[in-house]
Amino acid sequence: MGCSDQTRISYFRDSVINETGLPERFTFPFYYEPHPLTKIAAAELQHYLETLTGLDHNFGLVSGTEKGAIGKMFGVLVVADTKGKIGYLSAFSGKLADSNDHPKFVPPVFDMLTENSFFLKEQEVIDGVNKQIEDILSDKRYNDLKRVFEELSAQSVQEIADLKKQLKRNKEARRELREENKNRLNEQEYALFEAELVKQSNHDQWELRVLTDDWKQCLEETRAKVAAYSDRIEALKDERKSRSGVLQGQLFEQYAFLNKAGKSKSLHDIFEPTAFGRPPAGAGECATPKLLQFAFANGYKPLAMAEFWWGATPRSEIRKHKQFYPACAGKCKPILAHMLEGVPMDENPFLQPAEESVELAIVYEDEDLLVVNKPAGLRSVPGVDIGDSVYSRLRTVLVNTEPYMVHRLDMGTSGLLVVAKSQEIHKDIQKQFLDRIVSKRYTALLSKVIEQSEGEIRLPLTADPFNRPMQLVCFETGKKSITRWKVIERMEATTKVHFWPLTGRTHQLRMHAAHELGLNAPIVGDDLYGTADKRLYLHAALLAFVHPKTKRKMSFEVVEDF
Question: Beta strands 256-258 and 264-266: pairing type?
C-alpha cells in the first residue's frame, strides 16, 4: 500500500478489494464484528506501530515499563476517496507523545497544541496561577503560621479544659463546705460564709472569662495572619476556575464536527440536550470522530471502522493489547449520532428482539412464584426499544397475575430466574437476596486455560460513567465484589468453571473473569470485555432459596448446553 503525507490515506491493492469485497453498510460503532478490510488495515497499522522508532511514548509493552504506561485506542476508517479508490485512514485517541501532529495519522478535529494557539496562551496563564498557588502552599512563613495556629489552638483547648476541671473541683469543694457549715454556723455567720463562697465562685467565672478572652484574641491575631495567605489562595483558585471555565467554553465551540451533508455542529450544541448537559472531559478526542471529520472534510465516503487497544492493560478497565473494542458510548455516542446522520449503517443489535423460537421454559410454578430457565439473547425486563423479555412473555402466560421480577440476568446470560406472583412474595425473596440467603452457581466457559484449580476473587467495582453499562475496577470508590470459583473441565484452549457470586454487582462475573487481577480470561462470547461469539457462554445453573410461604428450602438446577 502507498501512503500520502498530504492526504494521510493508505490505499488497498485491487486484489485485496476483490478478495474481501466492500461493506454494504457502515459499521454500527457500538457493537460490531470488524469487516475484513478493517482487519487488514488494523494489522498494517499495528505493524507500523511495532516498527516505529523514536516515538517518546510509553505503551508499557517492554518488560519493566508497565509503571506509568499509557495505552491508546487506535482506529482505522475504510474510505472511498473522491475518485472512488479504496483506502483507509488511521487515528489515535487523545495525544500521542504529547503531540497531535503525526504524519501517519489524521489531525485532531481541533489542535489546541499548535504554536501560539489561544489554548496554549491561556493555559500558560493558568499554569502561572497554579505556580502562585504552589508557591504560597510551600511558603515557609505560611506553613510556620499554620503550625503555630494549630499548636496554639490545641494549647488553648487544653488550658481552658484544665481550668474548667479545676473550677468544677472548686465548685464541689464549696458544696461540701456548705454541707459542713450549714448546721455548725449561726444564721449571721453562715450569711458571711456564703457571701465568701459566692465571691470565690464569681472569681472562678471571671478567671475563666479572662482565659477564654485572652486565647480568643491570641487565636484571632494568628488566624488573621494565616488568612492573609489562605484568602489569597482561594482568590487564585477562583481565578483559575473562572479562566478554566471560559477556556473550556472556547474549546467546546472550536470543536465543530461535520457530517455527510456538510453540516457542522459544536461540542456544546451536541451535548446540550444530553443527560450530561455539557461535554465530558476528552469528548471529541477519540479516534472515530477524528477519522470521520477528516473523511468528510476531504470528500471521502466512510465505509467501515474499527478501533483496537494498543499497550499494556490499564488497572481499571478491561483492555487487551491488539483487541478490537467498540466506540465509547458516553463521549462518542452523541457526536457520532450527528456525524453519521444519513449514513446507511448496520442494524443496531441492541434493538434486535430475540428470535420467537427462543423458548422461555418454566421449570417450576405454584400459586406464589415460578422459576424459569431464561434463554441467552432474551432480556429479563423490557428495554427502551424492545419489549420482548421474560417479564413480557410471562404477562401473556399468567392469567390475571402480574409477574414481579425479583432479580435479573444479562441478556446474553442464560439460566434460572425466580419470579414472584405478588408484592409480598417479591419482598420476601428480594430480602433473601439482600441477606445473601439465596444460593447461586453459574457455569462459564473461559477463553484460555486456567492453571489454578480454584480460588476467590475480590475486586471493587464501579460503573464507568462515560461508557455504561461497562464497569471499572476502582480501589477508591468501587463497591466490594467477591466471587468463588472452581475449574470443572480444561480443554485445549478454554476452561469451564463454576462461579459462586457472594455479592451481586453489575457484570461481576464478567469483570472477575476478564480483569488481569481476576482470572485474566474473558468469558467466551463476552462482547463487552472480550470477543463476541454466537452467544455469551455464561449460564445460571443453580438457584436455591427458602419458599416464603412453606419455609422449605427449594433448589433448582439446569445444566448448561455448552
Answer: antiparallel
Distance CA 193, CA 534 (A): 99
Contacts of 273 (CB under 8 A, 6+ apart): none
Which grid cell is 165? 476541671
Candidate list 204, 388, 410, 428, residue with the active-site label? 410
pTM of the full structure = 0.75
Choose among 18, 37, 42, 10: nearest CA to 26.
37
Of 203-217, 348-362, 404-418, 523-537, least confident by mean pLDDT is: 348-362
User: What DSSP assignment string belongs to 166-195?
Assistant: HHHHHHHHHHHHHHHHTTTS-HHHHHHHHH
Dihedral of the CA atoms 9, 14, 15, 20 (nearest 10)? 70
Rounded to an integer, what distance in angstroms lies between the CA atom of residue 39 and that of residue 19?
13
Residue 347 Rama label (left phi>0; alpha psi -120 to 50; beta): beta
The string of pLDDT tens digits covering residues 51-105 is: 988 888 999 998 888 888 999 999 999 999 999 999 999 999 999 988 888 989 9
Single-letter amino acid, residue 260: K
For residues 512 and 529, the answer to whether their CB atoms sit within 8 Å is: no
* 209 pLDDT more than 80: yes
Distance CA 141, CA 136 (A): 9
Q: Which class is domain 353-557?
A: alpha beta
Q: Binning pLDDT at 50, 70 and 90, where does residue 112 land?
A: confident
* Rounded distance between C-alpha atoms, residue 446 and residue 519, angstroms: 9
204 is catalytic: no
Write down the domain spans for the chain: 10-110+259-350, 135-250, 353-557
Question: What pLDDT does residue 5 have?
Answer: 46
Mean pLDDT of the chain: 92
Q: Which pLDDT score is estimated for 99?
A: 86
